[in-house]
Amino acid sequence: MAIKKIRSSGALAILTSGGDAPGMNGCVRGCVRTALEAGFKVYAVYEGYQGLIDGNIKELSWESVGNIIQLGGTVIGTARSSEFRERSGRLKAVRNLLHYNIDKLVVIGGDGSLSGAEALRAEFPSLVEELQSSGAISASDVGTPTLTVAGAIGSIDNDMVGSDYTIGADSALHRIVEALDAITSTAYSHQRTFIIEVMGRNCGHLALMAALASGASGCFIPEMPPPENWADLLQENILEGAKAGRRVNLIIAAEGACDINNHKLDAAQIKDELKKRGVDSRITILGHVQRGGVPSAYDRLISTLFGAECIKMLTADKQESQIAVLQRNRVGSTGLTAAVEATRAAGRALAAGDYASAGRARGDEWLRMAGIQKTMMRLSPPEHSKSNNQRKLRIAVATCGRAAAGVNSALRTIIRMGLASGAEILAIEEGPTGMIQGKAHLAEWMEPELWNAFGGSRLGAGIYRQTAGDLSKIAGNFRQWQCDGLIVIGDWGGYRLLDRLYKARKRHAEFAIPMIAVPASINNDLPGSEYSIGCDTALNNIVDAIDKIRNSTDTAKRTYVVEVMGRYSGYLACCAALASGAEYCYTPERPLSLDELRHDVREMADAFKLENRHTGLIIRNENAHDDYSTDFIATLFEADGGDEFDVRKAVLGPIQQGGSPSPLDRIQAVRLAYFAVRNLLESIAVDVKGAYFIGCQAGEVVIHPWSDLRHSPDPWKRTRCKRWYGDYEKAIRKLAINPEVRNRRR
Ligand code: ADP
Question: Among the options 103, 111, 157, 600, which is catalytic?
Answer without folding.
Answer: 157
